[in-house]
Amino acid sequence: MARRGGVKRISAGIYSEIRVALRDRLAMILRTCTIYVEHRNAKTVTTNDVICSLRRFGRPIYGFDPDTYDGQKKARRPETNYDPETARRPETNDGLKKVRRPETNDGLKKARRVGAGTK
Questions:
Q1: In three state form, how does the secondary structure of the chain look?
Q2: Do 40 and 16 touch, CB atoms closer than 8 A?
Q3: Which residues pair with 97 in a beta bridge?
Q4: For residue 33, is it within any domain?
Q5: What sign results for the dihedral spanned by CA atoms 13, 19, 20, 22?
Q6: Fewer CB in 10 Å around end: N or C, the chain?
Q7: Segment 23-48, tens digit of pLDDT
Q8: What phi, psi does 95 have (nearest 5°)?
Q9: Domain that holds residue 46
Q10: How far apart are CA 14 and CA 32, in angstroms?
Q11: 50 lies in a domain?
Q12: pTM confidence score
């Protein structure tokens, strides 16, 4: 993390200090998370438990506001025309049609696309 923050050189003793600080912070957060879980009579720590714990310490995570965040909604995947039965993508129907061209010098016919409604 320090390298990503722009630190060029790090003392060798800093690693053990960071481990201790991280372990203490995580233990403190998990301790309050278990309070929320026990109050709900549940066995699973949810993201809402962690968010409430961090808010209790005065270090909220932004982007998880109940007004704007819906934990039930999954990430939206881009739509594709992939057909799992044939395991290939079907031809696209983008409003263009293939038009035959006259033969070229090498004897092969080339197809060109023309916009819909044109001749």
A1: CCCCCCCCCCCCCHHHHHHHHHHHHHHHHHHHHHHHHHHCCCCCCCHHHHHHHHHHCCCCCCCCCCCCCCCCCCCCCCCCCCECCCCECCCCCCCEEEEECCCCCCCCCCEEEEECCCC
A2: no
A3: 114
A4: yes
A5: positive
A6: C
A7: 999 999 999 999 999 999 999 999 88
A8: 85, 5
A9: 14-56
A10: 27
A11: yes
A12: 0.50
**Locus of tokens 């704007």:** 68
Query: How is residue 7 written in tokens?
Result: 């630190």
Q: Please give the tally of structural domains in the chain.
A: 1
Is residue 99 pLDDT above 60, yes or no? Answer: no
C-beta separation of 114 from 100 below 8 A: no
Phi-psi region of 19 (alpha: psi -120 to 50; beta: other; left: phi over 0): alpha
Model pLDDT, residue 29? 94
Query: How many Cα atoms are found within 13 Å in the side-chain-facing hemisphere of 110?
Result: 6
Extract the tokens encoding 62: 């932004």
Whole-number pLDDT of residue 63: 75
Which CATH number do you get for residue 34?
Answer: 1.10.20.10
